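Recap from last week: sequence in, structure out.
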Amino acid sequence: MYETFYGLHERPFDLTTNPRFLFLTPRHREALSTLRYGLSAPRGLTLLLGDAGTGKTTVLRAALNEERRPENRNVLLTNPTLTRPEFYEFIARGFNLDESCANSKARFLTEFQRDVHERHSAGGLTTLIIDEAQSLPYELLEEVRLLANIETSTVKLLNLVLVGQPELADRLNEQSLRQLKQRITLRAQLAPLDLKETAAYVAGRLRIAGGNVSEILTKNAVLAIHEISTGLPRIVNVLADNALMGGFAAQTKPVDAATVREVARDFDFGVGAVASAPPFSLPSVTTTPPANRAPRVSDEDTASGDLMDGGLGTGRAAVPTAGAAARKKRFLFF
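Predicted structure tokens:
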């Protein structure tokens, strides 16, 4: 709808797991490497944790898209709130077992172990991936633990990948699930983006979509997106997408921080001081810039400088405070 207005050839902030927009921070890269290993070798149980909106499913989809060896079989369960019979029915269908075996756990285990052994003998791997695993009922967590016992004396025959929110880690720390936790051989955890990463994330998506970043968002708009979203990519996408929509409706570009704050209020993101903070100016910096970098820009300039190139440094921005001295101290990384 707004693509032509901003010179884009596609929407850059849709809430889909489009691999073209994959953005890897060091933590995301580590998580992707962990999943690659857990899908390409007989490693047993792999655990990926991250708060809602940190990009777990996106990283998981990227790893699965890379794993295309025909001798391997991967089955992904995205809604694990099932009963025990439904769980086994899903696995039976996913691995193309006789549907009748889902009516009997004994028959299912016989057929499933036969299938797994045959695939291993042919040089392949069998993997069951469970997304949103924090929602698994206790009885299914116990079934997962028992499935992890499918092995020979020398190798694990079934890979299991659990992807979930931090609540899953809390559950695994319970005494009743200690045996399942002890079976975890690979583990990674995602965290929200810092300010530098948020700026690079927003800029990267706009560039991939064909946009000229300096004409689309101001620096303060990106700061507001980061502060309100607390670095959660999903919320960043919601804010940025709707801010572009608001700018299009007002026929205004680049989009400013006021538009972002208005979107945040509309979505009731509880922005508090960030939402009500008046516009502020970044202090001028008088130091001579290095030869290979452009001069630093003021707050009123658009997001074409260090911000959008991911050159903000590692500091995390806080809510603006009154007083030029306080602002200068907090935004020295610009």
